[in-house]
Design goal:
alpha/beta; 253 residues; Rossmann fold; single chain; three-stranded antiparallel β-sheet
């Protein structure tokens, strides 16, 4: 539980952890020492910090297997929101890729994407007109970045932008690991009338390296995080609608 708190918040004090778990500070110190020997934390004066940098992005193949069932259901819920003849942006990411898979074969759509994985998936859906941005390929991520990718959105007026993100926070907004991908996401957001964020429960409360946009920019969050999650409650108070996808008992982080 301490490791999970560090993953979400990035740091923790001995005093706060002792209060939270009802243990002595000496017990917390021993736990933090153990986490440090396992490479899961770094001890600092008065507490510990996360070893992993907020700019570290796990490989896309690794991310695709993490929370796979939740991502499938979140993607399916997002695809169910689509309407005939809409023009939408489908962002890069493993959850948006699941959304692309879930789009109905009989639905007429125009989709703009900077994801080669999403574009490949949509190429099998004959009624979907797929527009791929220009740009430079991020090796291993299959996303397109750079000025050409960003400029692709300049003269576009889209109905809805569906975003995949690394973190969702009531205070820090939606965030990403990579600065180049962030700039493309920001350009996409500017082109849309509505912004929908797809994020599984492990992203809620997470803060990655770069803030993409404040939470007030988001119209709808689709997640499997429970309504009683304190971050979800805070996000709702900011005026963001939340669509909850029910978790499965067999799911684990």
């Amino acid at each position: 539980m301490i490791a999970e708190r560090l993953r979400v918040e990035g740091e923790a004090s001995i005093a706060d952890l002792a209060l939270k778990f009802g243990t002595s500070e000496m017990t917390i110190r021993r736990d933090l020492d153990l986490l440090e020997t396992k490479g899961l934390a770094r001890r600092v004066r008065g507490g510990a910090i996360l070893v992993q940098s907020r700019s570290y992005e796990p490989p896309i193949l690794q991310r695709a297997t993490h929370m796979r069932e939740a991502k499938r259901r979140i993607g399916a819920a997002a695809a169910a929101l689509l309407h005939e003849n809409e023009t939408v942006v489908l962002d890069v990411g493993t959850t948006t890729h699941e959304m692309a898979k879930a789009i109905r074969e009989d639905l007429n759509l125009t989709v703009i994407t900077s994801s080669l994985l999403v574009a490949t998936e949509l190429s099998t859906k004959l009624l979907v007109k797929t527009i791929v941005t220009g740009g430079v390929v991020r090796h291993g991520e299959m996303s397109l970045v750079g000025a050409r990718a960003e400029d692709s959105f300049d003269d576009l007026n889209c109905d809805t932008v569906f975003l995949g993100v690394a973190g969702v926070s009531d205070t820090k907004g939606i965030s990403e690991y990579n600065l180049d991908d962030t700039k493309v996401k920001q350009a996409a957001i500017a082109s849309g009338r509505r912004v929908v964020v797809l994020a599984d429960a492990t992203k809620i409360g997470q803060v990655a390296f770069v803030t993409v946009a404040p939470m007030r920019t988001v119209d709808l969050l689709i997640t499997n995080a429970p309504p009683e999650n304190p971050i979800i409650r805070a996000i709702k108070k900011l005026g963001v609608d939340v669509l909850h996808v029910e978790p499965l008992e067999r799911e684990n982080g």
